Amino acid sequence: MLELIVFSLLNGLVYGLLLFMLSSGLTLIFSMMGVLNFAHASLYMLGAYFAYSISAKVGFWPGLVIAPVLVGVVGALIERYGLRNVHRYGHVAELIFTFGIAFLIEESIQLIWGKQTMDYREPEILSVPLFTLWGTDFPAYKAFMLAVSIGIFIALLLVLTRTRVGLIIQAAITHPNQVAMLGHNVPLVFTGVFGVGSALAGLAGVIAGPALGTFPGMAAVLGSIVFVVIVVGGLGSLWGAFLASLLIGMLQTFAVAVDYSLEDLFAEIGISTSKTSALSDLYTVTVAQIGPILPYLLLVLILIFRPTGLFGKREV
Amino acid sequence: MAVANTAAPGRSSFLRRNAIWWAALVLVVLLPQVARSGTAIAVLNQMCIMVIFSLSYNMLLGQGGMLSFGHAVYFGLGGYFAMHLIQLAGGAGFFMPLPLTPIAGGLAGLFFGLLFGSFSTNRAGTVFAMISLGIGEMIAASSLIFVKFSGGEEGITADRTDLTPFFGHRFGSEVEVYYLIAGWMMLSAWLMYRFSRTPLGRMANAVRDNPERAEFVGYSQRRVRLLSFMAAGFFAGIAGGLFALNYEIVTEETVNLVTSGIVLLQAYIGGVGFFAGPIVGAVVYTLLQTLLSNYTEIWAFYVGLIFVATVMYAPTGLTGIIMMHLPIYRVRKLRTLALPYLKVGVPALCCAIGVIGMLELLHYLSVRAVGQSTKRLFWMSLNVEQPTPWIVFGLLAVGGFFVARRMAPALVAAWEAASAQAQGRGER
Questions:
Q1: Domain A2-222+235-259, CATH number (from 3.30.70, 1.10.3470, 3.30.2310, 1.20.120)
Q2: Is residue B301 located within the same domain as residue B389?
């Protein structure tokens, strides 16, 4: 039992911090421009594919740097030449536009790399177990993922609170016009934030590619979960996104480990259920099986009862 | 509204007032006589189903201002329920003619529309969009878990010919099914059109444009949205039921986010601001999907390009573009636009050929077998390893783009001049 808890905690932490790398950019973009970027997870996927192609030529480590930069450039271009033009048609049009971009990125990935899973692997040096507890290995690569995610989190926090650029960004979130009056190029700040947010998503893709697989569906796997994170955390709140990422990460990893169903619960209190009824699925389904539903249930509940999210100040 | 414009109000005769509906009915009846092949009928069937589905989606997006990312939920659940009814009736042998089974789908859509709408229609905009996304993901995931109901990944199947014959018809042939589906399509489209003309349909527009004022007039924006939502769910369920009886299989694919995305795509490409928009969108999308996929594997990419271009440059959709030219056509000034259109159209076509060429070559690089290097494209054999085709396509794409962009202002000016004339004529 202790083994289960320790490993679920560790895996939840790795997964949660990965989610944070995606959601931090998304939540910053939302708080500045009011756009929920559907293409964010697609940029994450793009990062993994770029890194795969680069790593096939020059190795994993250059890919770790180059791929996110490329994704950042792609993101900045999308903002500059796409989103900015659509802005005048309103938020719904922007949302539909990013949805279209997400569709397009997924299709172009299949166009260039094909439909099959790419053989994108972690470097040799990280493909060993870091430590072994109760006979279960903890891979070094997961520790590496953890280290990168924490590094990014700290760097982001420092940049946003301790540097001039960070202050301008924070000011531009709440008072864009005032910031523009003071002589700052607010549209450029927007493009920059969108680019950096995309680069973070790309970086998440680079490090997640070897662990979670590099395939055309990888954006769909995380795409909606990232929305759950930023809505639950509270839109625009970086701390909220951080805590919600961990919450969702833990929720999903622990749910997978719990093999318990309503039937078992009924059995404990002495009620037997019929196996033949059409509703029997409802009893026999285990917590592990409904794991994938839980985040969305949380999303819907949060939106109904607390639209500001757990830590947010403004409504969706 | 497209249909409204062509139907002259009040005074004219019943036949004339509904001229476009009669024309559509004749077209729908005659189409299978023209397109006789099995594949053509199959395409028509799919088209009709998608028309109902897209129209129901536009009750939300176009008429109610609700952007849904989970409309396939009502389509798919409608399909599942209709399929269960067909299974039950086929097994137990009670009286249930096939043409009535889509109603089960519709009722399922209505019920789930009420259930999910009761908490998701409090607000429109992003909140609504996110809740619809959450529900969509939940239902899609559930459909893989509750295997007894949904059949898991394999889905559920039934044989439609097991049911009580309907005036001697067992619906074994594609054409019989076509007339069944087309009949439902005409009925549903007409009902949805009538819905948009009711006070409720009008209030849905008002709530979309300015919910606060609608409240002050005395309408609950929440209730108006909920009722539209339920109606949309009902018709999506009908479409799902027709899907079930047409394909005789319903799987998780019908409820998942991909299907929800496709219906958004269709409606938007067609034009959400017009009643006829989603019809145009569904027809165009189905044609692209079925015809284009014969020629290229990357048809979905082209559809995506069209979609993004629509969002960026023509937010009123294809129908919007057509409607822009209608007043000019009425004053017979369409000829003045011919030359400017040619000046933009030819370079734009060059650009399109260049882009398509590059994309096809790029795709060929990833799928070709070892040693292969020639690609058949535009009735030519091209060697992908030589730079010439790449350079030619690249030049066509870039050159075409810049020339088209230079010519575009002249086209806009010509259109504005012509439509100013049309307007002047109208006021007189």
A1: 1.10.3470
A2: no
Query: Which residues in A lie closer than 8 A to residue B122 (C-beta atoms)?
Result: 304
User: Which among A111, A285, A315 is the nearest to B145, CB-wise?
Assistant: A285
Place B6 in a pLDDT band, splitting at 50, 70 and 90. very low
Could you tell me the two tokens for B106? 């519709």
pLDDT band at B9 (very low <50, low <70, confident <90, very high): very low
Residues B30-46: tens digit of each pLDDT: 888 887 787 888 889 99
Cβ atoms of residues B213 and B206 within 8 Å: yes
Which residue in chain B is spatially nearest to A102 when comparing CA positions? B304
Strands (E) across B5-51 are located at: none
Please report, for the domain that includes residue B88, its CATH number.
Answer: 1.10.3470
Q: Do A100 and B311 lie within an 8 Å CB cutoff?
A: yes
Express each pLDDT in A296-315 by its tens digit: 888 888 888 877 777 766 65
Give residue-wise pLDDT tens across range B164-199.
777 777 777 788 889 889 999 999 999 999 999 999
CA distance A144 to A140: 6
- A 10 A CB-CB count for B205 gives 17
Query: Is there a single domain that holds both residue B212 and residue B185?
Result: yes
Helix (H, G, I), strand (E, B) or coil at B397: helix
- In a domain, residue B323? The reply is no
Residue B368 DSSP class: P
* Contact residues on chain B for A93, CB-CB shorter than 8 A: 311, 315
* Model confidence, pTM: 0.87
Out of A93, A315, A316, name the one closest to residue B311 (CB).
A93
